[in-house]
User: Fold this.
Amino acid sequence: MQVTPIKTRPLLPPHDDLFAVIDEALVALSAADDLRDRDVLVVTSKVVAIHQGRCVKTDAVLDKNELTEREADYVVPGENKYGFRITIKDNTLIASAGIDESNGNGYYVLWPEKPHEAAREIWEHVRAMAREVRGEKRQRAQPIKNLGVVITDSHVTPLRRGVSGVAIGFFGIKPLRDYRGKPDIFGRKLEVSQTNLVDSIAAAAVLVMGEAAEQTPLAIVRGIDDLVFTDEDTCNELLIDPREDVYHELLKVFVPKRP
Assistant:
């Protein structure tokens, strides 16, 4: 598997044009790095949120916890010792509903609205853009029929220091590799084993895209064996009802946000 980060100009809050930035970045790629059929384009959630105008002036927010509670789907009552709320948003365990000040230039950047739909919009745009620019300037390029898009953010794994990447939205690929019914090396059939591909892709991509001033909000991931591409919405294949989750007993501490 190969992960190639793509440097772009900064996207500026409170609103900027992500599609124009993607177009400019992809057209500038070398022949070796050019987007190909069966690639996955990874996009950080922050630039998607800026594209949507999901930014709030920090000096206009009197209480960040109130903003967090408004944005979250579920919260743990009370503030933790680090001064933020523990929340669930869009079926993801995340601090402060994903609200972030880094690279915000005086704004809180919220999570994108409907991130799976945002991933589909990027998927549609990039495939259309690839058709339009493939001509005399990009004769070397292959047609792009199969494409995955994954929108990522960084989050903290419980009982671990540091952050890693997580997928908050995706489109164009099946999110799981299913091993159920297949034998292990001793012939015992696996009963529940599935690999979460989209979070694995996110973790690899965020590792090379960085967290600070790299200006690499995009990455191309290539060479994933057995990745299944689709033009159907597959997000429900990944999401699990909290009552069926292996950590259900811990999730009981979350309560719905206030109306």
Summary: The two ends are 45 Å apart (CA to CA). The first strand starts at residue 2 and ends at 6. The CA atoms of residues 122 and 149 lie 7 Å apart. The domain at 2-54+112-240 is CATH 3.30.1330.100 (60s Ribosomal Protein L30; Chain: A;).
